[in-house]
Amino acid sequence: MFLLIGDHNPGVISLGLELKERAHNVVNIDSESFSNEMRYNLDITSNSNDIKLVINGIEYTSDEISGVFIQPIHLWSGDLPEDEKDRDYTIAEKHSALLAFINSFNGRIINRYNSNLWFQTTPYYYDSSPLFSSVGIRVPEMIVTGDYDNLVSFLENKEYDVVYYPNSERIYYRIDSPEEGSKLRDLLKYFPVRLVELLEGDVFRFILIDDNSFTFKKDGDPSDDYEEVSASITEIRDKLGLVMCGFSLLKTPSGEWYGIDIKPYPNWSDCPDDLNRQITIKVADYLEGI
Amino acid sequence: MILICGVLSDEVIELVCARLEDMNYDYRFFNLYDYPENVSFNYKTRSDGEVNGAFDVGGEIIPFDDITGIYIRFDDVNDEKPTELKEEYDPQIIAERNLSLSLLIDRIPCVVVNRNYPQHSNASKPYQLMLIKDVGINIPKTLVTNDPDEVMKFYDSCDGEIIFKSISGVRSIVDRLDDEYLERLPLLENCPSLFQEFIPGNNVRVHTVGDEIFATEIDSDVVDYRYAVSKDGSVNMKPHKLPAEMKERCFDISKKLGLVMAGIDLKLTPEGEWYCFEVNPSPGFIYYERFTLQPISEALANLLKSGDDKYLFRDIHPTISEI
Fold it and tell me: B152 at the A interface (CB within 8 A)?
């Protein structure tokens, strides 16, 4: 049996179909099934980890689970108490149980969890620039400041081609004029802000799975223009202890690569159709041990 | 220069500041209640990843490369003063403040006790238990479940000697599963919990501080000795001499978790077997130092002053920048 953990994600759905085509039993755990209807037990001793899941009345044990694919973000959101304190506690407990489940499987998993990946289980922004820098990939210039003069100086220096990233959300705001910049002034009373320069160039997406690498431009064109950075991003993937990892990099008109984003649990549904299919096949192959 | 980040209502922060004063070590206090109004930071990252920046502590500018060590605790900061904005904005403002500092703490190239992301192993006790057993330390039989029937099976298999506690890093009082709690087991369907076999013997709390190690043996008649007073119980502590192999394992798990300082909860059974329950990434060591006068804060002060590169653990902290 293959266990797919994630909420109605197109990647999870296509992987499920692929594994079913290969005549495997596929069980999906989404927020709804990870709620009160499902029974889960994790036995940990000094010598073993044993899992027993009861989903829709059917019992599955560790020995029956051949491989696991997981997209953990927001998975614990189903069936929560109304009281805020109870709700926060329940979320923390379900989330913590899930992290343990991810790591307790003995078979093939995309991907195991480790503490470096904490940001993947939160809605928070993550600054991936130190990881890119650690392997020699350039990063857009960034400033984190609580000082308005510093902020304006950075905006002027970058000619208002700048993005503001809040830390507590996965969104960003384009700052392209002095008027937009002045709106940040009020925020500085409460917290420092992060501004990142916006660079000109083509954005490339990379998806690494085991020994395979897939690349395409953000506008959908496939590309094999990646060999200069392939080894470096593989090194980051390995530092994070992952089988599968997604990256966004920008190539400037002068041919310099800049690291933009790292996705330890990537969604590949927006890839061009032929790549989408190839990635799904490689993920299924890895889980099967092919 | 040493930087202490926290609030003075946190007794551990107060103790560390007092110890640094006592040892005449140069330090500044980054009071989180004054952040970002009177204490803050500014930094730039160049395209090659090099970081240039400084802390601003009450108008004094302290460049990052003047700092040998940072000690940080967010523990008592939750009841931060509200802003004049609508109350609904406060959680986001607190998150922005704390995350800005946390992201800097994860990358600044000096000794940090402790960085942000290694602390996340403690956010899931069973996940951390799996890491603990990887370094060869025994762990108690543990069950994580939302199924009352499974708890009863576990209870019977442990002869009714089990305890329960939270799965996450949310603090909970550890207690035995007695008849009163057994009646409440159906509530488990709403939220999972963690159950463990009760291990007899004395608790031993170990603090690793860089290359130093302090073990404290706790003799108490209460399961969770931290709450002995409120449960009309007794607690006594004395320094404990750890066997060399156990010392090694404690350093191993601290390093594996990326923690320069760790509070490790062990138990020594009457048969001489060691078990580990948990590793605390932000230990409240004042409780043990007060009882035993073990020089834990002194070791911490020396660690922060040393600025020694070997405590950066660059091999397991991939996010540390160059200055």
Answer: no
